[in-house]
Design brief:
By secondary structure, the chain is mainly beta. It folds into 4 domains: 36-111, no CATH class; 180-215, no CATH class; 232-317, no CATH class; 324-426, Immunoglobulin-like (Sandwich), CATH 2.60.40. The protein contains 1 helix and 30 strands. The protein has one helix at 20-34, and strands at residues 38-39, 42-44, 56-59, 74-78, 81-85, 92-95, 101-105, 108-111, 123-125, 135-137, 163-170, 173-181, 186-191, 197-203, 210-211, 257-261, 276-282, 288-294, 300-306, 309-310, 314-317, 324-327, 330-334, 339-347, 360-361, 365-368, 380-385, 391-396, 402-409, 418-426. Strands 16, 17, 18, 19, 20 and 21 form a 6-stranded antiparallel β-sheet that branches. The protein has a 5-stranded antiparallel β-sheet with strand order 11-12-13-14-15, with no helix packed on it. A 5-stranded antiparallel β-sheet has the order 22-23-24-30-27, with no helix packed on it. The longest helix has 15 residues, at 20-34. The chain starts with 19 loop residues before the first helix and ends with a strand. 18% of the residues are buried. InterPro entries: DUF2793. This is DUF2793 domain-containing protein. It holds the Pfam family DUF2793.
């Protein structure tokens, strides 16, 4: 008959043995160590200065002091002395210092794979988890903090057709979702009831460009609340033909924006303008301002609509893009209201007084205006001498291209007189 048990080496009470209680107590002590084994540390090498009764250490390969020569043993402090027990293959021990679970694989203790908190069926923090929501947290807030630098929250999916998203709920009914669902495009979706969903914004994974209910469906989409796109109502367009054509210049429902005015556009243009660009700005329900720029730069005008009626086009600038015109025949100044003023200094033919007449004159001197006046009109022509005394100047407007001047004198003149002449009329 063996003296000890084959697995735990517990001493047996032999027949006719005296002091059976000693053997029995030793067996209980070993059981107290081995059953539900929990050690203060694994791989310990130095005995503690003040061990407590019942504490157990799993010794490492090179223990010292009172543990010397007991490599790999379990050291238990029992009855004020050390008791060493050899652990068996496959024994399990909980390391109380860090909560890890170890298995004896002689001559070492190895951590159980997986660790204690890996591959759990689920975790519920102040809540219960289920097969779908394997992590459930019920709390006022959840903090995911950095560990000295940045921090990433990663949501991974198996394939592009799967879903990786954040779902926002009301009463456990979905109301908003953001992420990559059904493709790798990033989308933001919303729902009023958790059943019908609207994709408010979708960002293409390849281009980054935006589409969705929150973005304009076209360049002339005036739906309130939608985001404008490049080229919307003519703003930010790039490329020929990007500006939408205006159907009717007088249409009070025309949205704000920049529009082309071409042969298909109806409504009054500014004087002298045909095609061009119209900038329409809505100031109120029926308060609109328009600025018109002629295609050839020949017209710049504005008008407003108020109290249900359009005002007339007011020219800001027209054919007089260059308001000052200078030629050898003088200088012309054109103003936006159509007024033209021409000035020049020239020398007239000398008056003839040899005949003894009180007033004698020379032939007329023609003056070609530096810029023509409007067809069918005649300017007001005035002239004054600059140096000669007793001299009168007769001025005749002629037509819108040429004026005529004649000098007359009562006394003999030393030479041909110099005069300053001014013509005032309309250029358009």
């Amino acid at each position: 008959m063996q003296d000890t048990s084959p697995r735990l080496s517990l001493p047996f009470i032999l027949p006719s043995q005296a002091q059976k209680h000693v053997t029995h107590n030793e067996a209980l002590t070993r059981l107290d160590i081995a059953v539900q084994l929990a050690v203060e540390a694994v791989g310990a090498a130095t005995p503690p200065a003040l061990p407590q009764a019942g504490q157990v250490w799993a010794l490492g390969p090179s223990p010292t002091g009172a543990w010397a020569g007991q490599a790999g043993m379990l050291a238990a402090f029992v009855n004020e002395s050390w008791l060493f027990v050899a652990p068996g293959e496959g024994w399990r021990a909980l390391d109380k210092s860090d909560g890890r679970l170890f298995r004896r694989a002689a001559p070492d203790w190895v951590p159980l794979a997986p660790p204690l908190l890996d591959n759990l069926d689920g975790v519920g923090i102040n809540a219960g988890h289920d097969s779908t929501n394997r992590l459930a947290v019920s709390a006022p807030a959840t903090l995911l903090n950095h560990e000295g630098a940045g921090h990433q929250l990663k949501i991974n999916k198996a394939g592009a057709a799967d879903t990786a998203s954040l779902l926002f709920q009301t009463g456990f009914g979905g109301r908003a979702e953001m992420g990559t669902g059904g493709s790798d495009d990033f989308a933001v979706k919303v729902s009023a009831d958790g059943a019908a969903w609207v994709t408010a914004l979708r960002l293409d994974a390849a281009t980054g460009l935006a589409t969705g209910a929150a973005v304009q469906a076209g360049a002339d989409d005036a739906t309130p609340g939608r985001l404008l796109t490049a080229g919307a109502f003519g703003w930010g367009q790039d490329g020929a033909g990007a500006v939408p054509a205006m159907a009717d210049l007088d249409d009070p429902a025309q949205p704000s924006g920049s529009f082309a005015v071409d042969s298909t556009t109806i409504g009054p243009r500014p004087s002298g303008a045909a095609d061009g660009l119209c900038l329409s700005m809505r100031l109120g329900a029926d308060d609109i301002a328009q600025i018109f720029l002629g295609a050839d730069g020949a017209a710049l005008a504005f008008r407003t609509r108020s109290a249900g009626a359009w005002g007339v086009w007011q020219a800001v600038q027209g054919d007089h893009n260059t308001t000052r015109i200078t030629t050898p025949d003088g200088e012309a100044m054109r103003s936006p209201d159509g007024t033209q003023v021409c000035r020049h200094t020239l020398t007239l033919a000398a008056p003839d007084t040899a005949q003894g007449a009180l007033f004698a004159g020379a032939a007329e001197t023609a003056w070609s205006y530096p810029a023509p006046f409007a067809s069918g009109t005649r300017p007001t022509l005035t002239a004054s001498t600059t140096t000669a005394p007793d001299l009168w100047i007769a001025a005749r407007a002629g037509d819108g291209i040429t004026g005529y001047l004649r000098a007359m004198a009562a006394t003999s003149q030393p030479g041909a007189p110099e005069v300053t002449v001014t013509a005032i009329g309309r250029w358009a």
